[in-house]
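Why this split exists: single-chain examples teach little about how molecules sit against one another. For that reason, every record in the complexes split bundles all components of an assembly together and asks for one structure covering all of them. Below is a record exactly as it appears in the raw files.
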Amino acid sequence: MSSKMIGVDVGGTFTDIFVLDEATGTAQVAKVPTTRPDQSGGFLSGISSRVSDLSEVSVVVHGTTAGTNALLERKGARIGVITTMGLRDVLEMRRRDRPRTWGLRGDFEPVVDRALRLEVPERTLADGTIRTPVDLDAVRSAAKQLIDDGCLACAILFANSYANAENEALAVKAVRDIWPNAHVSCSSEILPEIREFERFSTTALNAYLQPEVSGYLARLETALTSDGFTGEFMIVQSNGGVMDVDTAASYPIRTALSGPAAGVIAAGYIAEAAGFPDVITGDMGGTSFDVSLIAKGKSMLSPQTSIDFGMVVRSPMIEITTIGAGGGSIAWVDKGGLLNIGPESAGSTPGPVAYGMGNTRPTVTDANVVLGRIDPDNPIGGKLTRLDVEAASAAILEHVGKPLNLDALQAAEAILRVANSRMAGALRLVSIEKGFDPKRFAFMPFGGGGALHAGAMMADVGLARAIVPRYPGVTSAMGCVIADMRQDFVQTINAMLTGMDTAHLTGFMQAHVDAGNATLNHAKTTFEGIETTFVLDMAYLGQTHTVSVPLPVTVTDGHVTPPSEDEITQAFDKEYKSTYGRLLQNGTRRVINLRSAVTGKRPRFDLSTLAPKGGTVEAARKGTRQVHFADAWHETTIYNRLDLPIGAEIPGPAILEQPDTTVLIEPGLKGIVDTFGNTLIERADT
Amino acid sequence: MSSTDPNTGNIDPITLAVLAGRMEQIADEMDATLFRAAFNPIIAEAHDASHGLYHAVSGDTLVQGKSGLPIFVGVMSFAVKAVIDKAAENGDLEDGDIYIFNDAHLGGTHLSDMRLVRPYFHDGKLFCYLASVGHWHDVGGAVPGNYNPAATDAFQEAFILPPVRLAKAGTIQTDIIDILMRNTRLPQSAQGDLNGQLGALDLGVKRMDELLAEYGPDTVRSALDALQDRAETLMRSELTDLPDGRWEATDYLDNDGITDVPLAIKVALEIKGDTMTLDFTGTADRCAGPVNIALPTAVATAYVAIKHIFPTLPANAGVMRPITVNIPDGSLLSAPFPAPVGGYTETILRMIDVIFAAASQAAPERVVANAYGTINALSISGKRDNGQPWVMFSFYGGGHGGSIESDGLNHGNAPISTATIPPMEILEAAYPVMFKQWALRPDSAGAGMHRGGMGATYEIEVLEGNGAKAFLFGERGRYAPTGVQGGGNAALNVFSYEQDDGWHTPPMASKMVGISLKQGQSVRLDTPGGGGYGDPAQRAPSAIARDVAGGLITPENATKTYGPAWENAQ
């Protein structure tokens, strides 16, 4: 009976496990320490802590930070580049930006040394004409040099290969014939899209990750299989969909934001089920607060991101905005007497002062501890036995209280006010930038710390409610189980719409559908259906900003119906008008890129399987504690959150505790347990 | 919570910290609103725009958005002051008025920058000003895009709009829009940008209304005052930490594009206690060509340089209170109307260079060596085989200066800008050109313990039979970016072009009008790197070896500039 689905999210500190048993309709969660440097230890021990027989498991889905960490810590493989004569420095020159607006400091080294970026004679023009055929002897001799120099992967980066991949394809073949492993790729395979730096960077970073990530995934798969697992092993992509493990090994760059993406997918699913399709999620970690906007149940995708300065990845990603205000962010007073939070952070090691691990400067978490909002006797995560309230209080007094002439409690309140204000600012900005009024949205905190700040977000931004998922600490692991199998494709077209060869366009659409369907058919998972979408990046001639134009194209039995020029015109005009208000008279419409997405919809699981079964408010009550709000201590009731029954209404002030999260219900607010076990926080008078 | 102390009027520090963030966000949201709505890519992609809150009486910058162009941070208060003066003259400022103008002699920078200034009223009383500036695609004049290297007065650069009321008591004066739209080659683009700027101001008003409703005008006003005071305190504290003294630096512009004579830019930087004076006495007189700048631009540039040296200081006028900027009358830094100012970027880059060079003597650990120091505005134009005219216009990059902490950045953008360069493939797809090189330029950086960043080489071939014409507005062809603390100078900017008889360089070194190129002929820009930081003998041998192995420094140059350190590395 293989009825279990397992989601595993490996974060910096903890590995989270979410097990859904479809046969019994039950879910289990687990949290184990992440193992380093090899994350597979925590991965496997986490699974075995909840499931003894892996033959019962149909799917294991993994959200991983292996790729992200390798990029951030510059721990990818030694790789080589073979590129067009005259262009060896594209990776190093970037788009002529700089790390910070002010100060003019800092330099940049790409992941490939200049000595390992070799040029060969070849040139394709922008219209696809081959001006100089590729010199394959030069390619082979470059490849040999790179092998001799100890390169473990090779990226082939040719100009205008999006327009005609012939030279790159010939070069790739020549290199593959002599390269000692499978890690050879070219830019037109990874991203056939115009813009050489973005395409080269994505391809080079993919090569940089390939040896490490494919090895890691193979180790995991082998270990799972040897323990009796016969189901499908899948990996979460940055676009919020999952892919099979072979695809992940070939395109590890698609995992760059794997973990956070899964969290946002789960948040959107939970919020929509709860009846609130418009939410802003907030994941508060040790060093940062990650915010993402979901409108009408759909998360936003951004076309590219920078993992770090100059390390650009162009591949659709769930849009996540990060500000440096996490639990470990340090509070300090500047020379002008202004209280600041971050960007310096104590992280999780050494962590807040209250952890007693050597940090002496106060953090946001220390303020929560001093004000009684976090229970010092039951620290989250189970690493420590008790938090040092006195040390936290002394640090706050010393570094914030004294310079501002406040006592320790006032200073702790001040730290929270400023931190909350910054977090609320992030909520406002992500919605304003997309043209939404933030007041329309609910706030969904996840991760360990966010639920302490939900009431403050409501007050500061003017939101009607917050939704705390039943298991906020394992949201990303749960997202692994929910996510669909999604594949994104791109192809630069670069043609005027009038008189365009639509057969050429349809050819690419069909190829994308064929490739997508082949992957879905190959998967061991079953799908409830396949969804295919086509979007054209279009603009008027002379305009560099494009609008994304969804095409109303149908796919029947795997066959694409060609769109007519007229249909594309209408679709563009509609989209352009809604973006810019009016059309350009006599403007020439251009098609820049085709973007296709083929999504296998995985079976929905019923969130009410997570809901509490029975229970009473009385039985969930643990006792009371003094908690400081505004300028006074309040006798505050503490509940075991997971024991509260559906429909329970808890007036603030109250604290709902569960092993990995503390939910704070401030005076004037109330918490309601909905039918899925989420806690809705609303104003008491509503 | 009580926010102000009734006895002293002092705002409590927590409310102040919260309000500082809230007001900064109002300006940031105004930026975001325009970037999203603007039609023209100079605003939408290069973020050549800015928004902020300004003092009701002085026009001083109170709060400015973080994502706009650096040079605007200092210059906007002059735009607001110009409107304050004009409104005082008219004597009838009303709620709902919006002034608009592009006059660079009143508002700084150049005529492409359209400034909208709106008084913000609360309970019938003027509370502050909101302003929006954005670089429009075209505002008339002799050359599309308004970059005319041969201009000898402002009338040849663009149409000139003094501060006039675009809206009167909330009603848009459509006559003004009609005038604007008749004076641009790209009315749709202009209309889109104008709508975006009006939208940003509307949003600013809405957010200010909400903020004042929540905190009350007295608290917000106290916060604004306190933020200025605190910025001043921070600046004074930074200056106190520096030694007293007087340091000088002189650098040169190659020429003004009309007459081939170098133009000196000179500064004396004096620190006395918690004050600083920047005196530009000794700078060249007003010139005929477009490298003049207006006084507001000069003062704003001093601010940009100071903010690069002290990057954590807030963006408000309090920072400038301890600083006196002395710009001599009649110099090219305070050129009166109608002097041409279209090439202002070159001049202000050189001002920043001399301020850095002087400040590096006072505070070597804080200052980076000179960046490449020119925007290299290169325009190549012609007719396609099918008769369609084309113009490829772009700015090109170079190296940043070395600092105490690292080598300079290779191929960065200019210190006055945050704009990125268009991708080579986008340019090749749009225009009949091919880049034979888009590469770092070996030996272009100044040597040093931390060398400068590398400049670039761009070599561009014309592909079609009708050929093309090339125009360049650059600098640093005769005077190289300088190193500091013993660091070496970078390479000169070299522009060369191919003719039937071989390669040539222009007589004015860095400026050239109307070079004819045939199919198959190329132009080539070799841009400067950044200056070096510290004694080259102190450079880590491994770093030299790496640069030589990668080909960024030739072995001959390594021997010449690093000598024994390089010998040791081998």
